[in-house]
Amino acid sequence: MANTNEITHGFSILASNNLTKHTLVSPSKQTISFNSDVDTTHYDEDESSSTVSDCESSVSGPVVHPPTPFSNGLISLQEGDKVYDLISGRLISGLGVLGAQAKIVSIHRNSFSGVMGQAKIQSFQIFVKAVAQKCGGDANVKYAWYAGTKDEICKIIEHGFGYCGKPNNDGMYGCGVYLSPDDSPLECVKNSAIDREGMRYLLLCRVILGKQEVVHPGTDQYHPSTGEFESGVDNLQVPKKYILWSTNMNTHILPEYIISLKAPSSMKGFGRVQDSLRVPTSPWMPFPILISALSKFLPPPTIALMSKYYRDHKGKKVSRHELIQRVRQIAGDQLLIAVIKSYRAKQL
């Protein structure tokens, strides 16, 4: 049998046999825990080892009756529940100094009720085992954030991921679903839509990443480049974006939790504070010269995308600040600093 222990960033699932055996019963004994020393995902065949259920509370006090599933198959978790506290704590801490400006309003668990819900779990587990076997025993299953409107997320829970026409992301990394690693929710929150009540909605999903390939901005890729890979990533060492191709989006993503939160209506504050922690201090350089210098390090599609953003700026379609942010997102600060320093040295 394939090894189903996968490394995660910070969440560790200990699921009961309701998730591992091919049964058609509600997975009421699913737990999630965090350990700073051991980051593993483990599927246990012994239901008795599930130490915390979604209905149990980690604080002492009156007995709380288990929440009733909603008609759409969601179960409300309560503050004080270990799962609730872990997810909310992970999200708030992932926002860094900006966490104080965000407020978790509710967390709901996808109960995967009914025959079709159980079928989704079984399908995901089958692909976990298949990818693990393909990748030498490690399917590389991790948790990741996805932002969407309330209506979109409800449809994802009911029908799965899908879109027609232009995707709701910027398409910078090809045709697929973009998710943020569980320890980097800031970008996901910044890109989330706000409804009339000032609410933002996130999905915490389990994703099968397998062996990842670096995807450069500007690509039109929509499936793995070779059979060796399962998913894409913007940076292997410091990932900020996972790319699950459209061909795999409903087999390699399992949406488990919906988080409703309130954050400042204008995300400019989020961006400014976070960016101020890492803005390059080197002087800027003429943009055409910068593009020429970067072309020695980045592939042609990426340079073409960068040139398009520059033309948009010249045509007053995007601001200078937005142009700079997009260039930093594409090239990365480390490369930009090195190129700028080299340019300045030659000017001396």
Tally of alpha and pi helices: 10
Helicity, as a percent range = 25-40%
Number of strands: 13
Largest β sheet strand count, sense and barrel closure: 9 strands, mixed
Radius of gyration: 22 Å
Mean pLDDT: 74
Q: What fraction of residues sit in β-strands? A: 15-25%
- Distance between the first and last residues' Cα: 63 Å
Shape: globular
Stretches with pLDDT under 50, minimum 5 residues: 1-10, 12-71, 268-282
Give me the side-by-side strand order of the main sheet: 5-6-13-9-7-8-12-11-10
Structural class: alpha+beta
Helix-strand pattern: EEHEEEHEHEHEHEEEEEHHHHH
Structural summary, described in words:
The chain has 348 residues and is of the alpha+beta class. It has a 9-stranded mixed sheet, with helices on both faces. Strands 1-4-2-3 form a 4-stranded mixed sheet. Helix content is 32%, strand content 20%. The model is unreliable at 1-10, 12-71 and 268-282 (pLDDT under 50). A hairpin with an 8-residue loop joins strand 11 and strand 12 (242-245).
